[in-house]
Amino acid sequence: MERIKRENYLSILKNFKDEQIIKVITGIRRCGKSTLLELFQDYLKENGVEDNQIISINFEDADYEELQDRKKLYNYLKSKLVKGKKTYIFLDEIQNVDEFEKTVDSLFINKSVDLYITGSNAYLLSSELATLLTGRYIEIKMLPLSFKEYMSAFEDKTDLSRKFRDYLQYSSFPQATQLFKINPQNINLFLDGIYNTILFKDVMQRRGITDKNTLERVTKYLYDNIGNRTSMKNISDNIEGLEKNNSYNTVSTYVQALIDSYIVYKANRYDIKGKEFLKTQEKYYAVDIGLRYYMLGQGSGKDMGHILENVVYLELLRRGYEVYIGKYDDLEVDFVAKNPENTIYYQVALTTRETANGSILERELAPLKKINDNYPKYILTLDDDLNADFDGIKKINVIDWLLND
Predict the structure, then answer these.
(1) Which DSSP category does 205 fall into?
(2) Residue 176 CB neighbour total at 10 angstroms
(3) Rg over CA atoms, the chain
(4) Which of 205, 204, 147 is CA-nearest to residue 177?
(5) Can you name the residues that pair with 58 across neighbouring β-strands?
(6) What DSSP state is assigned to residue 198?
(7) Phi first, then psi: what are they for 88, rounded to 5°?
(8) Among 194, 206, 317, which residue's Cα sits nearest to residue 257?
(9) Which of 83, 108, 141 is the last residue of a domain?
(10) pTM listed for this prediction
């Protein structure tokens, strides 16, 4: 099956090649971590690295089950090191190895080793590993395909609106994109496999959760309410069958486990005027809209405004921003995107055309106009009219924005 190149992630690996730092790639199952490692190994070979200098192990592969013992793994790797040359070690889904952090630490201190590891659960960077490797690793947070990466899989670049609908409905997972070319009917079977594996292996087994029915109800509630402000109390009040005296703690545990498995993302709120982070009424977003369609049915596509918001949120994460929900007095800014150099404000709307309920454009502009700093401000919409500027607030077609970094 043709591999979709993930140039943004690949360029990071190239930049950190041979640096004495561990490259940690995290992200939901099947988002392309293993393929990224393969693409980088091809790059190494094209640039003079010999086959015996590359050791690659996927701990989801039964052939390597014996190496899930950390001591056996370390001895195996040590025996394969190439004397006098750099050895590139790739350990895929390393969370399957008990006490793997000790092996990672032992490999790190060997200057002839360039180490790359991946994991599908935030446990990979739990406090123990993070403490052990403080300042000695970079984390590359991987997501399923951006719309730009999705389009790179197709020779025909026309009819972008239809392709954008397909991108949403038929999933942004790389393998789903390839399945779409062959037979879209098979995508639900693929998503069913991902969903159940994540819930069973990455959530229930990892966190010792036994009540799958309640876990599924919490997951579906979060997916059904993407882009809505919520709280643990909101969720527990809407989940039937929970023991009321313990519902808050149960829901908190389940939600955190879903976040740790990267199937759900949480966006906290930020008071722009007071310049402080808020601890309540956060929002949750789905890692993939196709997975949401699979879980909730085709009727869930009616909520296109929040779906568009979800897509923009994930894209901002891909571009390296920390993303918050903005509050200014009693008004809301959809996203405050921050990095060390910049802050950008975004409003996301399906359309800004006039409606029976008044001007959507004025409603979207209102909170942005109140912000009196000089950071960029944008309205992203599916309107196909020309890009516009409202006293420095730029209105941009969201598909154009997704296709241009």
Answers:
(1) I
(2) 26
(3) 22
(4) 147
(5) 92
(6) I
(7) -100, 115
(8) 206
(9) 141
(10) 0.95
